[in-house]
Design brief:
Blueprint: H1 2-41, E1 50-56, E2 59-61, E3 68-71, E4 77-80, E5 83-90, E6 96-99, E7 104-107, E8 115-123, E9 125-133, E10 135-137, E11 144-146, E12 151-157, E13 161-168, E14 174-177, E15 182-185, E16 192-200, E17 202-210, E18 212-213, E19 216-221, E20 226-229, E21 231-232, E22 236-243, E23 249-252, E24 255-258, E25 265-273, E26 278-283, E27 292-294, E28 299-303, E29 308-315, E30 321-323, E31 330-336, E32 340-347, E33 354-359
Parallel strand pairs: 1-8, 9-16, 17-25, 26-33
Antiparallel strand pairs: 1-2, 3-4, 5-8, 6-7, 9-11, 10-12, 12-15, 13-16, 14-15, 17-19, 18-21, 20-24, 22-25, 23-24, 26-28, 27-29, 29-32, 30-33, 31-32
């Protein structure tokens, strides 16, 4: 009985020791968990980092381009729009929007992933330059043109030159206005260079001839000289020349001469009728000689170039003679009989006064 009691007591103690051991293990486990929780609470949560990269006209740059703010005389401010925002691209599906007023990029959503956002910008203004042949650029032309607008530039051709062609980079369309002497480049979106050529003007000369021959229409280049043959009709001379557009020409030896033609012109050449001068054909002694009778007038008026005639009738076998100095007439017997002769003295193509003395 006693041994049985001892056995029960030992078993009881053994169970108690095991219980305390299990309890102690439980306490130790809970303590470890508490320590772990305390450590986790001291570590801050991961914050995603956003790296920004900036591009201007698709070329990477070191920092975001910014527009200048100009203060006006009245105190107001104006943004000088040298740059415009184009687009953004972010990794990990990060979204955002660009605030053009405050010039900042704002994220719409956040996650715990590090991401890269590429921000793309374009120039707000572009420079346009020219390579000119036979012309210069107006110094008042704008040097920069706002993006996506048309640029209008005044070009000044050299004297006597006119627009030929324009070829611009980026396949830009260019339109020339002859009236305003300006070149319009359509919708500029990049730096642009234009090669513009001017060529010598091709001018027109129209010649109208009155009382003569030589009507013609000629084409010449600006600054050229030109000679044109023109002839008057018979009986006409003393050409008068009148040209339009302040063009001048001279007429000499049946040739119309132009020196340095500078404009289209129409020239009228008018020949005037030659004024005919009358010359005197005179017999100084028409009634003083016996047997000679003057049939024609003793004094005649003959037009220049016309023929003068003196007719004398002689009787009793007398042969009439005329002494007219250096002028020698041609004789022609008009009538003849045994006792009478009628003689015609002719002066062809008279060009001066003639005085004759009749004798036998």
């Amino acid at each position: 009985m006693k041994n049985k009691l001892i056995t029960i007591t030992l078993i009881t103690l053994f169970i108690i020791n095991i219980s305390f051991g299990i309890y102690g293990l439980f306490l130790n486990t809970n303590k470890t968990k508490d320590v772990g929780n305390s450590t986790n609470e001291s570590i801050k949560p991961h914050i995603a980092k956003i790296e920004y990269k900036y591009y201007l006209e698709d070329e990477e740059i070191n920092e975001m381009p910014k527009n200048d703010i100009i203060t006006n005389e009245d105190g107001t401010t104006t943004i000088d729009e040298n740059y415009v925002f184009s687009k953004y691209e972010c990794t990990n599906d990060v979204k955002g929007n660009f605030d053009t007023e405050n010039w900042t990029f704002n994220l719409d959503n956040k996650n715990n992933k590090d991401s890269v956002c590429d921000l793309y910008f374009l120039k707000g203004k572009y420079e346009v330059s020219f390579i000119l042949t036979n012309a210069i650029e107006d110094e008042n032309n704008e040097k920069l043109v706002k993006r996506e607008t048309d640029g209008i530039f005044k070009l000044i051709p050299n004297d006597g030159y006119t627009f030929k062609s324009a070829t611009c980079s980026n396949n830009k369309e260019a339109i020339w206005d002859e009236t305003t002497q300006t070149l319009k480049i359509i919708a500029i979106t990049k730096e642009t260079t234009c090669n513009v050529d001017f060529e010598k003007k091709l001018l027109n000369i129209n010649i109208i001839v009155k009382n003569g021959t030589g009507n013609t229409n000629e084409t010449v280049y600006y600054g050229d000289n030109k000679s044109i043959i023109i002839e008057p009709n018979e009986g006409y001379d003393n050409a008068k020349v009148a040209c339009t557009n302040n063009q001048t020409a001279t007429f000499e030896n049946n040739t119309l001469n132009f020196e340095k033609i500078t404009n289209n012109t129409e020239c009228t050449v008018t020949f005037n009728k030659i004024a005919l001068k009358n010359h005197k054909l005179t017999i100084s002694n028409p009634t003083e000689i016996e047997d000679l009778t003057l049939i024609s007038d003793a004094e005649q008026s003959i037009e220049t170039g016309k023929d003068g005639k003196i007719v004398v009738r002689a009787t009793n076998g007398i042969i009439p003679k005329l002494n007219c100095g250096d002028s020698i007439p041609t004789q022609n017997e008009l009538e003849s009989s045994d006792n009478t002769k009628t003689i015609e003295f002719s002066f062809y193509n008279m060009s001066n006064d003639i005085t004759c003395q009749l004798s036998k």
